[in-house]
Design brief:
By secondary structure, the chain is of the alpha+beta class. It has a single domain, classed as Maf protein (Alpha-Beta Complex). The protein contains five helices and eight strands, in the order E-H-E-H-E-E-H-E-E-E-E-H-H. Strands 1, 2, 3, 4, 5, 6, 7 and 8 form an eight-stranded mixed sheet that branches. The longest helix has 18 residues. The chain starts with a strand and ends with a helix.
Length: 200
């Protein structure tokens, strides 16, 4: 019988990435909505790890499944690591990423490439039915380009460029992105722990 795993998100783009990265695990991966869980969780932590854990613990209290939650964001060095943990809320949660991306590009206007360094950060927290907790962090280093590029990503992907690929993460194939992304790196770290407990 497959272990039930609930990922504390309603974001379908994120769920697709998660399913691709955790493919082959003997788990049934459900979003909160698919699991019939509706909860408003206040993410008031000051780090990605704290926010991921707040979400995972809140959902774990409502189910006997394994619960995973993540918190991720973009850190731009020139802007004092903004938007950071406020990435989703930057300029307001209802503001489109097209507008957010244009605003960040405007703030970096005239700044040379060497100073446009940035990274995506993702923390993934796992809470097991026995109360055990695991938190892992994944990052991907890059820089903010001069203009948005690509249709394959979401969020800040169109303005985040990776030197080795010479393009934005939104211009990569899904396979390329999953292989190097912050979420991919964090989920692979958690996957190793899940394999030990579920399949070990």
């Amino acid at each position: 019988m497959k272990t039930k795993l609930i990922f504390a998100t309603g974001n379908q783009d994120k769920m697709r990435e998660i399913r691709e990265i955790l493919a082959g695990l003997n788990v049934e991966i459900l979003s909160m909505k698919e699991a019939g869980i509706h909860a408003e969780i206040s993410e008031d932590g000051t780090t990605f790890e704290e926010n991921a854990l707040i979400k995972a613990k809140a959902i774990a209290d409502m189910t006997d499944a394994v619960v995973l939650a993540d918190d991720s964001g973009l850190e731009i060095d020139y802007l004092n690591r903004e938007p950071g943990v406020y990435s989703a809320r930057y300029m307001g949660e209802e503001t489109s990423y097209e507008i957010k991306n244009q605003a960040l590009l405007k703030r970096l206007e005239g700044v040379e490439k060497e100073k446009r360094t940035a990274r995506f950060v993702c923390a993934v927290a796992a809470v097991f039915p026995d109360g055990e907790i695991i938190v892992k962090r994944g990052t991907i280093e890059g820089y903010i380009g001069d203009k948005p590029e690509g249709e394959n990503g979401f969020g800040y992907d169109p303005i985040f460029y990776v030197e080795a690929y010479g393009c934005s993460t939104a211009a990569m194939t899904r396979e390329q992105k999953n292989a190097v992304s912050h979420r991919g790196n964090a989920l692979r770290a958690v996957r190793g722990e899940l394999e030990k407990r579920i399949q070990g």
